[in-house]
Amino acid sequence: MRVITTIAQVREAVREARCDGQRVGLVPTMGALHAGHETLIARSVAECDVTVVSLFVNPIQFNQKEDFEKYPRTWEHDLAVCERVGVGLVFAPSNEEMYPRPMMTYVEPGAVAEHLCGRFRPGHFRGVATVVAKLFHAVEADRAYFGEKDAQQLAVIQSMVSDLNMAVEIVPVATVREVDGVAMSSRNERLSTAERRAAPVLYAGLLAALRRLERGEREVRWVREAALEVMEREQLVRLEYLEVVDAVTMQPVEHVDGAVRVALAAWLGRVRLIDNVGFVPHGE
Ligand code: PAF
């Protein structure tokens, strides 16, 4: 496994591999790798000849400087995970390499970033779209792998790739969960014992909404009600949003007549968690 820190070197390595007819997969991460990342990486390793994992904590997607500074940096562990799963190249640029001077150009996502997390984290998706565009230009991969847990991030990236004619195939990967249903996230580590015990109620609420959809309910207010009834039982949870949105545009719907995502963000103490489930009505 090679560890590369410059854009010029990673670009050259990837171009060489592609010239040799090899398919290159990219898994963009901010490090602090957990089992969810491992699944993304393993999928790329299984489908591509060379897998590049980027490790870069992107300052421009954080709303608070403190969150950026506190973001876990687990370098040794991350390299060990990459080595174990079969990664060929780790791209770990410094801040200076990625942002050598103040930025003058950004990728500004449109309506897809307006609702859900976009409402509560102004500028976050602009920061994500911009760094992902920069990574796509540095690592000219055939495919890039993103988790469905960050459904809005995935939709922002899919729309950017389509709108800007980027030549990379986006591969969505299903959310990986702990045995009690909690979606894998580096933030889970920050939950207290009581908060961690309460956390499964988020997925339980989403499943209640999903069951209602599967039984034929199409009015969003009743779908939301099913989830809220479950989540209200847990006092430690402070819901930030619970919305049913179009699966592609991320626009809220009132009536379900196409593919949707039921998505939520909630606070447990000082930790903000997000989760979602997808639903596609069949034969309607
Ligand atoms: O999902 C993440 O870890 C980040 O948002 C990403 C896509 C690596 C961009 O910094």
Rg (CA only): 19 Å
Tell me the strand percentage band: 15-25%
> In order across it, which strands form the biggest sheet?
1-4-3-2-5-6
Number of strands: 9
The residue-averaged pLDDT reads 97
The largest pleated sheet is described as: 6 strands, parallel
Give the topology string: H per helix, E per strand. EHEHEHHEHHHEHEHHHEEE
Tertiary shape: globular
Give the proportion of residues in helices. Answer: 25-40%
CATH superfamily of the largest domain: HUPs
Query: Which structural class do you get from the secondary structure elements?
Result: alpha/beta
Give the terminus-to-terminus CA distance.
49 Å
- Briefly, what CATH class of the largest domain? Alpha Beta
Given as residue ranges, the uncertain stretches (5+ residues, pLDDT < 50) are none
Please give the domain count: 2
Determine the CATH topology of the largest domain: Rossmann fold
> What ligands can be seen in this structure?
pantoate
Number of helices: 11
What can you tell me about this protein's structure?
The chain has 284 residues and is α/β, with parallel strands linked by helices. It has two domains: 172 residues, Rossmann fold, CATH 3.40.50.620; 92 residues, 2-Layer Sandwich (Pantoate--beta-alanine Ligase, Chain: A,domain 2). Helix content is 39%, strand content 20%. The chain has eleven helices and nine strands. The strands form two sheets. Strands 1-4-3-2-5-6 form a six-stranded parallel β-sheet, with helices on both faces. The chain has a three-stranded antiparallel β-sheet with strand order 7-8-9. β8 and β9 form a beta hairpin. α7 packs across α8 and α10 packs antiparallel against α11. It is globular, with a radius of gyration of 19 Å. 38% of the residues are buried. Bound molecules: pantoate.
